[in-house]
What we know:
The structure is a homotetramer. By secondary structure, the first copy, chain A, is α/β, with parallel strands linked by helices. The first copy, chain A, has eleven helices and 14 strands. In chain A, helix 3 (115-127) links the parallel strand 7 (104-109) and strand 8.
Amino acid sequence: MILILSENTDVVSEEYRQLLETLSALPGIKHRVHHVAGAERGVTEIYLIGNTKALEVEDMRSLPCVDKVVRVSQEYRVLGRHKGDDRPSYFDYKGVRFGQDTLHVFAGLCAVDTPEHVEMMLRALRDAGQVCTRMGAYKPRTSPYAFQGHGKDCLPYVFELAGKYGIKVIAMEVTHETHVDEIRAALAQTGDPTGVMLQIGTRNTQNFELLKAVGRQREFPVLIKRGFGITLDESLNAAEYLASEGNQRVVFGLRGMKTNMGDPHRNLVDFSHVPVVRRLTRMPVCVDPSHSVGSRSVGPDGILDVMHVTAQGVLAGANMVLVDFHPVPSKALVDGPQALLLSELAMFLDDVRLAREAYLKRVASVHQHALAHT
Amino acid sequence: MILILSENTDVVSEEYRQLLETLSALPGIKHRVHHVAGAERGVTEIYLIGNTKALEVEDMRSLPCVDKVVRVSQEYRVLGRHKGDDRPSYFDYKGVRFGQDTLHVFAGLCAVDTPEHVEMMLRALRDAGQVCTRMGAYKPRTSPYAFQGHGKDCLPYVFELAGKYGIKVIAMEVTHETHVDEIRAALAQTGDPTGVMLQIGTRNTQNFELLKAVGRQREFPVLIKRGFGITLDESLNAAEYLASEGNQRVVFGLRGMKTNMGDPHRNLVDFSHVPVVRRLTRMPVCVDPSHSVGSRSVGPDGILDVMHVTAQGVLAGANMVLVDFHPVPSKALVDGPQALLLSELAMFLDDVRLAREAYLKRVASVHQHALAHT
Amino acid sequence: MILILSENTDVVSEEYRQLLETLSALPGIKHRVHHVAGAERGVTEIYLIGNTKALEVEDMRSLPCVDKVVRVSQEYRVLGRHKGDDRPSYFDYKGVRFGQDTLHVFAGLCAVDTPEHVEMMLRALRDAGQVCTRMGAYKPRTSPYAFQGHGKDCLPYVFELAGKYGIKVIAMEVTHETHVDEIRAALAQTGDPTGVMLQIGTRNTQNFELLKAVGRQREFPVLIKRGFGITLDESLNAAEYLASEGNQRVVFGLRGMKTNMGDPHRNLVDFSHVPVVRRLTRMPVCVDPSHSVGSRSVGPDGILDVMHVTAQGVLAGANMVLVDFHPVPSKALVDGPQALLLSELAMFLDDVRLAREAYLKRVASVHQHALAHT
Amino acid sequence: MILILSENTDVVSEEYRQLLETLSALPGIKHRVHHVAGAERGVTEIYLIGNTKALEVEDMRSLPCVDKVVRVSQEYRVLGRHKGDDRPSYFDYKGVRFGQDTLHVFAGLCAVDTPEHVEMMLRALRDAGQVCTRMGAYKPRTSPYAFQGHGKDCLPYVFELAGKYGIKVIAMEVTHETHVDEIRAALAQTGDPTGVMLQIGTRNTQNFELLKAVGRQREFPVLIKRGFGITLDESLNAAEYLASEGNQRVVFGLRGMKTNMGDPHRNLVDFSHVPVVRRLTRMPVCVDPSHSVGSRSVGPDGILDVMHVTAQGVLAGANMVLVDFHPVPSKALVDGPQALLLSELAMFLDDVRLAREAYLKRVASVHQHALAHT
Lengths: 374, 374, 374, 374
């Protein structure tokens, strides 16, 4: 059960003290307090854990400071979309709104290689009016003998260049909690020129210790990708690890799955799950067409498969797109074959725009039909 | 290697006799003649099988009656899209064109139950301007004790009602070669009021004897669905069984796959393969959202998942949609829970239309960008 | 519900007539009579289908001619192992007993190529004291352009040679009902020198029309293999199609499954399901190590993987082994790389024997421990 | 390329200095020194990384201190079994030898709950002559709200009781590098009464940062389990992460895989891979029947499925068995339903013994046949 406190709740007030005292006295119930950073001054939520079936929603609502009460189902307690639950499905970061009602493209380098390539990428994004990017510094690789990313060494120039070109948010994978410290330090050292969305990759979806560490910090929002070999439900529970530690600014990423089908793409694209994640949870949903498709194959209609599946994700309501570009794919250190060219950026963004327009028209059309029937 | 003969080739001419004589004399080469029913009077193709590497394309083109020569790669010889191959990617049937450039919706009953329901369905389709439908008479079921469809008994009234409501093509699954005879007989008995596209279901994708039997007849076009537990490549080879026996009027259907992911839908939707099938072969591509999704789940945007995935398929260039409707889903004998209501038909068709419009805009946009770069 | 009649039931007696009359009068119940070929004179079973919950076991047992009554659970009605069900888990054919308590090796050619190779194979089997073999005449192949087997042309010499070398049962795949007629005709023509166990391959596991046709004949027992891309439950239901048409002499074959694991073998070996099939049904269980493993890889202990997995299946209670041998694997037309050599036959049979001995010791040990505890 | 130095190499000798100098001068080659703890005084290995194709094996062998040279294939450089590679496939720890030629059973509690249960378990093991066990203190769980193990709090009594009952090695999962410190501290605090084999669970198989941390310490050997949703090759590469950091005392664990087959067991048992891992690498192979099977199902022969699959693994050469027991399964906090009873311990160990005996007989039989052929 979640108690959502009134917006003006003062945590040093007598009323608040009384509330906590009452909660402490409930038999078989523990409580945990979370201050959720929201659009404005944030709200305070108290999670009641244990035998909450014995509690009445009305009784809880009558306690001091309590504004709303949500009885949650077993799973995805914090991030889930529960019955009668009108908690927001968005958050703001660095002036950018990430929600189930917005769409942002994060085009960028799968792996940072040289300052020149980073700058070419960022300049192209600025020229195309983009304020988000992806930049890989820490790369988990199947073999211990493969290139593992430049790590913290590249952070200063990546952040400075981001600031120079007006980038507000960089999605960046971390594979160990110390990477968060390194990112924080590099941002401080360069004067906080940009924001970072921490990314949990598919190999770490069930690395619960990393999730807990990243969930405990509130500074950076987190993009968690589904595990490519586990169920959607298991992946959503993994996202809940982040939230259960306090960080609710979570985006959920689809990136294809491993199947037994000798898939013609690198992975089986799972963007049919976009509406499912939006229905089960309040998280914005990201799609990663590059790692799903893994090639630059083109259909007989002249459209790249990467673009086709991106458009499919957006048409079903996706809120974020993570896509690999590279100035010189043949020189990319990781996943070059799937990268788009800078000269294709405008075409890609136009394609995304057409799919988004179609999505909005579909929503309007369905609502109109629904109205006609009532 | 395929020799495509001139359109005006007379198979009782001296030239044609000479051609066959020459081919018979080629060492290590067998040939097989196919008359392909095309848009107008059809064309004749001769497949050369064996050590064709030793043959020169130029030599073959200089033979009498030969118009074009296609050197095929190993797989999907007949249906594949080979280098320098400009054979058509469409066919006509009952005045309807099925091609990689058209789109038709086949809404209808998964399983025929009563004449009343069939009539309600067909009337709604006529009122919505549709000329295609799906009607299941022969139902393969996992358990031998489940309802197996009304079989040939329902064919007369299904065909008569189709004629009454202006339906030109009915997609209908067959699971044994005798079903084709039964369909032919019922059409003859009722005066050929409509056309039938034979459907090979996912359990029979590798029932090669059935494929060969259905491939040998040229009367009915065939929709073959991918096997839900085999690779795309294996399924495309199965389609080739139809063509290798002479029937090239083949549509390939995607219908979701079985995965290990505890999929939130009945199957994992595989419509990201639409552009792949269009690239590898010249077959029109059908999507079956009903069997992929298997439920009436709705997203927070009010759009059914069945509609979301349909739109995703169409946005990537799908040419045919097979979708379950039912006047009274609760009374449906098979797969009722996934059926749409007749009252949702207009909304569904509008949604398909929006996705198709978006697809055409995407193609135009990509071509414009390509032109700007040259 | 199954009524098992007394062994001496005379189907032209007055009592039997009365029984059928009573059953016909039961509201909401249909009945179907099956004469099951058993060890001696066979028994008669009557299946009651419909609302059998309303019937009392005692009432049914009191009807004339009825010896036992089995209330079956929903699935695998005929072949399943139901509560209180002591129907036999074996059958006899050509003097060989196939049961959950026996073990037979069917070594032989995956695909018949020449009479010489067939004879070399059969002579080696006779010399090793074997009376069963596998011989492939009809080969379903992924591509329509691959070798499809010699079909009926090779049957006469295969059967005659089998007779010459004392082979009693040949496992032989069929992919169309006409193949059964061809086999019957070839046996008649050659004077019935041997027996045939019809084999349903993995691509036809859900070819229900073929299963029904093969289930309607009672002459030949049937080996049905699990589908490599469907669930075990679906495959067991497919076996039930055979039995529901009357043929209960069914062996169930495990042959590996397709997975997403980039399996080091051709398929993922599923012989851990041997005890599961034995628990759920009364069918003898066959394992096919050759198609599961698909190679001649050898471990550091000098034992072929094909032998390791065979031994694993036998150690868990398998009752039949289907294994590919070939006198000259490099000349085999199908699956040569996985075939064992004739010079390895004695080693293979010794290995199977050691695994079988270990299985019997394990059963004895567990029973002894169980006794000690009571 | 790996240079294996002579056993008596003195790392402060002039010769050794010369060797390193020579290696440093090789263009395009880096080297890394590893001291491998072996049976007696250990050996020193030097890994050459980079363009080793340009180096001749003979040239390298002629360098001072070098005893053997192994040219490794690309993958599994350290742990792999390379051509002409006779490095040992075993290691010793706490007086117990873990190798491809030994077998040890690690029966114990999936999750430690109370000191009483731990003591009951350990006493039973001592009485059965066992010196190894498994004890779970840190439990990664799908949901953040499930019991996560007692963690470091239970370590002191677990270690003390182990010492009391003569247990030499406890397999214990760790999910964060700090757990290793906690284990080290608790051992020191209790006077090092026992040894610990660190266990990497299936969710962390590709948690490369954890692998690197555990690979850097040489105190504890490591059991790494295959990832249940990745390929065997990816899992073996993960094991190589441990070795590439210096810890070569690695056991590889099979524990079943997630498939799309609606598996009748919790996971699809993959013990057919035992000989594969033994062929590709020099690691001892562990099987985990409890997590593969996940239930206490019994076959018609009275043998538990858990026992059947254990025996299958051992029959193919497995070197270690990890199996869940519990004094009172109904009170187990994690995975109770799959645990065996203490009263079943003797039966289980007898069954393992029978399978091991059969394995050894099989090896002898195959060698005898091989000799007869030469």
